Amino acid sequence: MKRASILPKPSDTFAHASNPTDSGAAADSDTPNGNQRRQLVWQIVFATFFRLALNTARRFVYPFAPLLSRDLHVPLTAVTTLIAVNQTTSLLGLAAGPIADRWGSRNVMRAGMALLAVGMLICAIAPIYGFVLAGLVLTGLAKTVFDPAVQAFVGHRVPYARRGMAIGAIETAWAGSTLIGIPAMALVIDQFGLRWSFLVMAVLGAIGYVVLARVIPGSSEQATEAAKQPGLFSTLAQLIRIRPAAGMLGFAFWLCVGNDNLFVIFGVWLENDFGVSLIALGFSSSVIGAAELMGESITALWADRIGLKRSLVIGLILATGCYALLPLLGTTLPAALAGLFLIFLTFEFTVVCSFSVATELLPSARATMMAGVLAAAGLGRMIGALSGGIAWSQAGLWGVAAVSVVSTLLALICLLWGMRGRRSS
Predict the structure, then answer these.
(1) pLDDT of residue 23
(2) Which residues of 145-169 are buried (b: 16+ CB within 10 A; e: fewer)?
(3) Is residue 425 assigned to a domain?
C-alpha cells in the first residue's frame, strides 16, 4: 500500500472537509434511505439519551462544588482538584480512539456505559472523598471512550453534507445535561441525599450497557477500513504530523481552557455574590443548558449553510467578546445569568461546528481523530479547572474573565494556523 493512502497530505484533508462532493467525502457512507434512515434516527436517539446520562454524571460536580465540599468534609480546592483529575482521563482517549476504529463503535460505547455504572456505584456505596475521586475517574473514562465512538458511528453513516445536523443532534446530550440532568440531580440530592444521585446514574449506566447491544449495529466495514491503517502509535502520530489535525488539537485545548476556567467557579460565584440556594443553583444550570441547546440547534440548522469553518471563526470571535463582557454584566443575578447564557451559546456553537469539521480531517481513522480532539479538550479542561480556582482566589471574576479571553484568542490562532494554505490546495 502506498504511503499516500495511509497518510494524506495536509492540504488534502482540508480539501475533503471543504468540498463535500469530493470523492473522499462522498464515499464516507451511502445516503440512507427508507428503513435505513428510520433505523439510523432511532440509533441516534438512543445514543443521545445515554450520552446525556454520561454528560450529567461528568458535569454535575461543577455547580454543586460547594455542596460536595461540605458533604465530603473537604475544602473547595479539593473539589476543584477532583474535577481536574477527572479531566485527565481524556488523555486515555488517545488509545480509545484507535480501539474504536478496530473493535467497532458499538463495543466501545457499551464499555463506556459499563464504566459509568461501576464508577457511580462506587460513589454510591462509599460517598467519601477517596472513593468519590475513584468513581468519578471511572466516569470520566466512560465518557472518554464513549464520545469518539459515537461520533465515529455518526461520521461513518451520515454523509458530510448532512453531518452538521447529525452531530448537532448528538450534541444535544451536552445541553441536556445542564437543561435536564443537573436540575434533576438537584431534586434527587435535595430529597434523598448525595448518595442517591450516584445510584441513579449507576442504574442508567447498566441499562445503557444492555440497550445499546440491541440498538447499535456492529460495524464490520469500520473494522475492515481500520485494519488497513498502520499501528496504534503510527496512527496517533498523524494527529501531529498533519497540520490541520494539529491545529484542531490546539484549538480544542485552548477553547476548553477558557470555558472550564469559568465553569468551575460559576457555582461558587452565584452562591457567594447572589446567595443562590441548592435548588436554585441546580435550576440556574438550565440557563446554561438552554444556551447550549440553542447553540447546538443553530449548528444543526445553519452551520452547513454558512460553512463549517466560517462558523468556527465567527463563534470564536463572539465567545471572546462574551467572556470580556461578563464582569460588566455580573452586577445582578439576571444580568449574570444572561452573560452565562451568551457565553455558553457561542461556546457550544463553536464546539459542535468543530466536531463536524474534525470528523473529516482523517476519514479513515475518525475515532482516532475525535479521540485526539477530546483528549486535547480534556487536557484543556483540566488546566482550566485549576486556573479557574487560582484566578478566582487571586483576582475574582475579572481575573477569570481575562484568562478565558486570552485562551479563546489562542484557540482562534491555532484554528487559523491549521486552516492556512487550504485555498491553494
Answers:
(1) 35
(2) bbbbbbbbbbbbbbbbeebbbbbbb
(3) no
Q: Is residue 93 over pLDDT 80?
A: no
Point out the least confidently predicted range of 16-25, 178-187, 377-386: 16-25
Residue with cell 463495543: 107
Distance CA(260)–CA(382), nearest Å, equals 8
List Cβ neighbours of 96 (8 Å cut-off, separation of 6 or more).
108, 144, 145, 148, 149, 367, 371
CA pair distance 230, 98, nearest whole angstrom? 10
- Longest Cα–Cα distance in the chain: 64
Q: Domains in the chain: how many in total?
A: 1
Q: pLDDT tens across 28-48, in order?
A: 444 556 677 788 888 888 999
Asked if 137 contacts 268 with a C-beta cutoff of 8 angstroms, the reply is: no
Q: Is the pLDDT of residue 22 over 60?
A: no
Give the number of other CB atoms < 10 A from CB of residue 229.
21
Q: Are 360 and 247 in contact (CB under 8 A)?
A: no
User: How many angstroms separate the CA atoms of 412 and 247, rounded?
Assistant: 10
> Has residue 274 been placed in a domain?
yes
Confidence class of residue 257 from pLDDT cuts 50, 70 and 90? Answer: very high
Cβ–Cβ < 8 Å for 347, 175: no
d(CA 297, CA 292): 8
C-alpha cell at position 376: 486535547
At residue 315 the predicted structure's pLDDT band, cuts being 50, 70 and 90, is very high
Separation CA 290–CA 177 (nearest Å): 10
- The CATH number linked to 97 is 1.20.1250.20
Q: Which residues constitute the domain of residue 137?
A: 3-419
Alpha helices by DSSP H, listed for 216-303, are 220-227, 232-241, 243-274, 278-298
